Amino acid sequence: MVEIAYALYLVITLAITIWVARTLSKNGEVFLIQCFCHNAQLARSTNHLLVVGFYLVNIGFITLTLSLGKEPVTYADAIRFLSAKIGLAVIVLGGMHFFNMGAISHFGRKVNGWLTDGHTQAA
Fold this sequence. Notes:
The protein is mainly alpha-helical. It contains 3 helices and no strands. Helices cover 88% and strands 0% of the residues.
């Protein structure tokens, strides 16, 4: 029972992490291009770095929380175990998304200003 619950936790949370990372990467590139004054190369590079960081933090979190909590003995325990752990992982994924959006918005405006200032000074 315990091994199955742990395996399900890992499979489900890693699948959610991969799906969220791909979705954010695909749809976030358009946002980054706009933030970075239509510099597609900078946007793609930043997007890739964000995805790598996203994977590292979330996979680290998932593996660290593996050992937390009481091990399930019954099917009901396993459902509670999976609900709590998966729910916590999803909340962390959502928090990371909002943190990244705020950081991109903040730093994107700065980079956009640098690019715009550099472009006007070069002209």
